[in-house]
């Protein structure tokens, strides 16, 4: 397994809409394993393929708490098919926007249809942290970032900060 470099804001790749995965094969499963390794190393609880520069509808998640056994999950072509009317607020962060956190309101529960590692279609009913994480990562596949849910002023400040840091790094 290989740890991949993360794409960081303001890289425009993060705004690309990812393309569906056509087939589950060894190459795709290797990519999923690399993504899990990258996510654990970061450390994070979710990672979309676009965050390592691969515009495919693939994401990995592990919301196991510290001290709990790892529970890696792979979602291929995930799609939210149902969202609850009830809302919840979580403080979200993102491996592509390091060390920035903001409260985001989302549906409290979702049902997600996806293809698993086995190549078969599955349904997952999620609430709590898993529901938030799934929505956050599926947003990545659609070119949406969690900062799109905060005020325009705060979002512009975050983008400006990361643009400035990127320019300083390029010099």
From TrEMBL:
UniProt cofactor note: Binds 1 Fe(2+) ion.
Annotated keywords: Hydrolase, Iron, Metal-binding, Protein biosynthesis
Record-listed Fe cation binding positions: 94, 136, 140
The organism's place on the tree of life at top rank: Bacteria
The keyword Ligase is annotated on this UniProt entry: no
InterPro entries in the cross-refs: Peptide_deformylase (IPR023635), Peptide_deformylase_sf (IPR036821)
GO terms assigned for molecular function: peptide deformylase activity
Entry's EC annotation: 3.5.1.88
Catalytic site positions: 137
Calcium keyword on record: no
A Pfam short name: Pep_deformylase
Known cofactor(s): Fe(2+)
Catalytic activity: N-terminal N-formyl-L-methionyl-[peptide] + H2O = N-terminal L-methionyl-[peptide] + formate
PANTHER family attached to this UniProt entry: PEPTIDE DEFORMYLASE
NCBIfam families: pept_deformyl, PRK00150.1-3
Protein task: Removes the formyl group from the N-terminal Met of newly synthesized proteins. Requires at least a dipeptide for an efficient rate of reaction. N-terminal L-methionine is a prerequisite for activity but the enzyme has broad specificity at other positions.
Family the entry assigns: Belongs to the polypeptide deformylase family.
Name by which UniProt lists this protein: Peptide deformylase
